[in-house]
Specification:
Blueprint (H helix, E strand, L loop, with lengths): L5 E6 L8 E5 L12 E6 L2 E10 L24 H13 L4 H6 L18 E7 L6 H7 L4 H12 L3 E3 H7 L4 H9 L3 E7 L20 H11 L6 E6 L5 H15 L3 E5 L7 H11 L3 E4 L5 H13 L4 E4 L11 E7 L16 H12 L2 E6 L4 H8 L4 E5 L10 E6 L27 H28 L8 H8 L11 H4 L8 H7 L2 H13 L2 E5 L8 E4 L16 E4 L2 E4 L6 E2 L13 E4 L3 H11 L5 E4 L9 H10 L5 E4 L12 E6 L13 H13 L10 E6 L5 H7 L3 H11 L10 E9 L2 H21 L4 E14 L2 E10 L2 H14 L9 E6 L6
Helix pairs in contact: 1-11, 4-6, 7-8, 20-21, 21-22
């Protein structure tokens, strides 16, 4: 009688609330331990799954398929990682296999190539030493080049990459082959880690002494018990990063443990990483979406092997394969980018707290503007509240002024000709010619200094990326303007804007402040949280607006390159020359974007060096670094951008921050709209006045009495929280209650509405018959009711206790039947950060 194959339980990344049973024939290539990757047959193909343990085989029908391969010698997911994935699956109501997929880098998820290759290089290594000069003369008597190469290898420590010898030192391949033939050297392949920061010059490590407040914060955290959570509430410029670094010194260097530092994706710039690399050097690994799959895989391997002990990354870094975890830091913990946008829709902050509890680490949640949820938890004693109420070095928070754009009416003839030539009302008048001359002189000096720096770094063997002007010249493009766009694009306009147009965007108060900073050689930051050139294009005759065919949203007009773009599905149309409905030729651009502000500023201040930082200018791998490095070298006078310039920037010469339009997003149909607006204003205001020169902040708004604006002006976070919290009590929204957003979607509008009505009735019967403590709002169309050709309806579930919400959501998702037509789908977003 043949041996009965043993049965095993495998989790697969499929939208099914169950695990799968497979058989093991004979002895696998590698041991089967819970958390090990396995290659299994699935339908007509293969899939990567995670082995969970033995299966009992109950209820099986038909033949059980055998696993195909066990590619790894050790588990890809640790015991703690499995426990964390089980929590994610339970809390966010997703299949375990879907949750486990988060723990693997993309390179380990392909069944076609379960063992991804690593980058290698050929290396020459001395195999046999020749100590005697007489012996050397005899061996190399007629081969002086071989002797030169052999002795060079000795001076290089006995090994060198082949590429370096042949291409950099100009030895011929025949010389190397001669040494190999004599048995003196051998050539082997060695693995080379793909490190995206390898060519970036290390930042200078300046040891800062913590202030008494910072030291108290560090002491409290280092004395924390495993699993404890600290909320570090520090105003902008209070030195939260130094607290993080001192905590990591204790945890990693003195206690020998590992650590995770989570940073919002938009703030995860090379400058942020440089601060940690300056202190901890090669112990730092980086994980974020801009890296290639190979770079992420190499970093993952280095972390699992213990070669790197600290990971700095975006939300997915919370699953990094670190052993002996001692601390998890979540910087800017209020950021919405910590929430995953697709299944599993986990929040990295909550996941960090659970992982720390599982593995015995402390958690630090840092922010100048904590989320209301974290603040309430700290006030209730669930978290430990640690405060940094003052800026380091005795600096003061910048003065914030409001410019009421409702009352703004430009004086007739003010600022004629589209330039800052008539600056009436300034106490000390500034000559425009003097401003332009000073700018031109500083620009020439800065470019000369930058060129000298590039030469010195190149001579030292440090990789130096080409300057923007060099790159454009190499491509044969038109000369570069100092905003990073071409002069040709700048002049491809119908007509320059008049003074009234500029004044409707930049108030006289803000312009005066800009001119003063330009004249003094100081830097300014301008925020407009809307990219593109204009929000939409509208026919002046019939009112028709260009909309996306796939989404219920208008198309944004972009000018460089010129196109109409949907910011949801990225659909693009050519710019319209006539209205498709009435054939009218008068098309108006409505609304404002960063491209338009950039153009207005460049025309107003032609000699000013303007850099724009938004999704359109930072899509390339090192574009963040190049822009911010230019700001740091003082090659930029005005940095204009979206919310990505509001976080983590520390430039002492920035003495002015201007918010072009504070009202963007403040009235969105979302309960967190006011909170996001306050956080953005407070964060961007904190970029000013970080040096001895002080700073000033100007906020342009049409709703100056809104509590988000009022309390941002007064730097009063606690007053904002009190008013915002009161507004969430009736009707109840987080943090008063827990919520889950159930979204019904499909390609046919009527089918989606019918599914939503049926699903809402199903839930209503469920919660009505079990006294669950769960209430429901809806169904209703989503605020953006169509995205990527899918119509969307939703219902909102609310409960005071999370367990009740989990039970109702799981029971519904596991049992509610979705018709197999019209690509109908039901998804659940637990603790949503937005309801759009």
């Amino acid at each position: 009688m043949p041996d009965t194959p043993r049965l095993v339980e495998v989790a697969l990344p499929l939208p099914l609330f169950r695990n799968f049973t497979y058989a093991v024939d004979g002895e696998p290539a590698n041991p089967l331990v819970p958390g090990t990757r396995v290659v299994v047959p699935l339908r007509t193909g293969r899939e990567i799954g995670i082995y969970l343990g033995p299966a009992d085989g109950e209820g099986l029908k038909g033949k059980v398929k055998p696993i195909v391969d066990v590619p790894d010698a050790e588990p890809a997911v640790s015991e703690g990682g499995l426990a964390l994935a089980r929590w994610v699956a339970e809390y966010y109501v997703v299949p375990l296999g879907v949750a486990l997929r988060c723990a693997l880098p993309a390179a380990l998820t392909g069944a076609a190539d379960p063992t991804p290759s690593q980058r290698t290089r050929r290396v020459v290594v001395i195999r046999r030493h020749v100590p005697s000069l007489l012996h050397r003369d005899r061996i190399f008597g007629r081969a002086p080049q071989q002797r030169a190469l052999f002795e060079l290898l000795e001076n290089m420590g006995g090994r060198s990459p082949v590429e370096h010898l042949l291409e950099q030192l100009n030895f011929s391949p025949s010389v190397l082959k001669g040494l190999v033939a004599r048995g003196l050297v051998e050539i082997s392949e060695e693995v080379v880690a793909r490190d995206p920061f390898a060519d970036r010059a290390p930042a200078r490590n300046v040891r800062h002494v913590p202030t008494p407040a910072q030291q108290r914060a560090v002491d409290a955290m280092t004395a924390g018990q495993p699993g404890e959570v600290f909320l570090l509430h520090g105003i902008t410029g209070s030195g939260k990063t130094l607290v993080y670094i001192e905590l990591l010194r204790e945890v990693v260097e003195r206690r020998g443990k590992t650590a995770i530092v989570l940073v919002p994706e938009i703030a995860l710039t090379p400058q942020t990483v440089d601060r940690f690399r300056a202190v901890f050097g090669d112990q730092i690994a980086v994980l974020h979406s801009a890296l290639s799959d190979g770079e992420r895989y190499d970093a993952w391997l280095a972390l699992r092997r213990g070669e790197k002990r600290i990971v700095v990354g975006a939300r997915s870094a919370i699953f990094a394969p670190l052993r002996d975890l001692g601390a998890i830091i979540v910087d800017e913990e209020h950021e919405s980018s910590y929430k995953q946008g697709e299944s599993p829709r986990y929040h990295a902050r909550e996941t960090a707290i659970v992982r720390a509890r599982i593995e015995g680490a402390v958690v630090v949640l840092g922010s100048a503007t904590p989320s209301l949820e974290s603040w309430v938890n700290a006030r209730s004693g669930k978290y430990h509240l640690v405060s940094l109420p003052e800026r380091v070095g005795g600096g003061q928070l910048p003065a914030i002024e409001v410019v009421d754009m409702r009352r703004l009416k430009p004086e007739p003839g003010a600022f004629p000709g589209g330039r800052a030539e008539s600056l009436r009302g300034i106490a000390a008048p500034i000559s425009p010619a003097a401003v332009q001359a000073a700018l031109a002189q500083r620009m020439a000096e800065s470019e000369a200094a930058a060129a000298a720096t590039r030469r010195r770094r190149a001579e030292a063997g440090v990789y130096v990326p080409p300057s923007a002007s060099d790159a454009r010249a190499a491509r044969g493009g038109p000369p570069e303007r100092h905003d990073g766009s071409s002069a040709a694009a700048a002049h491809n306009q119908n007509a320059p804007p008049g003074s009234a147009v500029f004044r409707s965007v930049v108030s006289e108060t803000l312009e005066r402040a800009l001119v003063e900073r330009l004249a003094r050689g100081e830097q300014s930051i301008l925020l407009l949280n809307r990219r593109g050139y204009a929000s939409f294009v509208q026919c002046a005759d019939c009112g028709d607006v260009a909309t996306c065919p796939n989404c219920s949203i208008t198309l944004t007009y972009h000018r460089a390159p010129e196109r109409l773009v949907c910011h949801y599905c990225l659909h693009q149309d050519e710019p319209r020359t006539a209205c498709p409905r009435c054939r009218g030729s008068l098309l108006k651009q409505r609304g404002l974007g960063t491209q338009q502000v950039e153009r207005l500023l460049a025309e107003r201040f032609p000699a000013a060096r303007i850099a724009r930082m938004d999704v359109d200018t930072t899509s390339a791998k090192w574009s963040h670094a190049q822009i911010l490095d230019r700001v740091g070298r003082h090659e930029v006078d005005v940095l204009l951008g979206t919310q990505m310039i509001a976080k983590g920037l520390d430039f002492p010469d920035v003495t002015l921050v201007g918010v072009i339009d504070a009202d963007v997003g403040i009235n969105l149909p979302d309960f967190r709209a006011s909170e996001r607006c306050y956080q953005l204003l407070a964060q961007v205001a904190g970029r000013a006045g970080r040096g001895p020169k002080g700073g000033r902040v100007l906020i342009q708004t049409r709703v100056p009495t809104h509590h988000a604006v009022r309390f941002a002006v007064s730097h009063d976070y606690e007053a904002f929280v009190r008013e915002e919290y009161a507004g969430r009590e009736h009707p109840a929204y987080p943090p008063v209650v827990r919520v889950a957003n159930v979204v019904f979607s499909g390609v046919a509008e009527r089918d989606v509405e019918a599914l939503a009505q049926r699903g809402a009735a199903w839930i209503r019967r469920l919660i009505g018959g079990h006294a669950s403590g769960v209430t429901m709002v809806g169904p209703a169309p989503c605020p953006v009711e169509k995205i990527k050709n899918r119509w969307r309806w939703h219902v909102l579930l609310k409960a005071e206790h999370p367990g009740e919400l989990t039970r109702v959501a799981r029971y519904f998702l596991e049992r509610f039947e979705v018709p197999k037509k019209g690509q109908l789908r039901v998804t659940l977003d637990r603790d949503p950060v937005a309801l759009l």
